[in-house]
Amino acid sequence: MANDVADLTDAAEGGAEFVLSSTPVVPPEKRAPDSASLHDYENLGELPRSYGGAFLFAIARDPHTLFVYWDIDWVAVFGDRPPVDRKVHLRVLWHEGIEESTAAVEPLAASHLVSVLHARSSYRVEIGYYAPENVWNSVAISAAVITPPDEVAENGPVDVATIPFHLSFQRIVDTFRGSKYDGDALAEILGRLQHHADSSDATLPESERELLRALESGLSETSASQRARLRRAPDLFASRERVESILGFGATSPM
Q1: Quick one: 54-146 is in which CATH superfamily?
Q2: What is the pTM of this model?
Q3: Which end of the chain is more exposed for a tag (fewer CB within 10 A), N or C?
């Protein structure tokens, strides 16, 4: 028996993983650490089932599905009078509060996927219960959520501009200050200038060519000419090399 206890002690200290004995062997009890000696992060206790109040969150998972999550203290909500059917319901409200559908859910599930009819539309989701049978009691309602479109966007003209990452945004703004472009969106300005410069130098006034030269200061002549050549390429996104060259990947814009 002494050997058994010794073997068991070895197991507790990281020795043998099991012990063979003709009699039951009870391992020595480990003394629980004093709660006062525990660090704050080791003595947090059990997590609550609910953090109190009533919170409902909804987000579009796809054009026809909403993900709904709630954190509600149902004991506080129901008290000693739970609904007769012992169910809670989600009401899906479309557009200006039109009820599109309802679904019975398990209160403690805390989440549910809801199907909706309309893509590119505004929805709210409300959770509550019926008590008495035909009287709706609202517990929480979500903020408005917009479902995404369910169709591919039509083809149309796309404006592409090369943003000079080797310059700070403040430097770019200062370059256009006082010109006819002052106050316009930077991407639109750059797109127009670069389009004219790549098409024909004759159509670009000297003042605007100076703006382009100021923006390309700091670039080597090879890099500047390569970007212009790639912008004129017939296949707009022919290669990763072209995209990286135009955008100047590898160098970040200074602050």
Answers
A1: Immunoglobulins (2.60.40.10)
A2: 0.48
A3: C
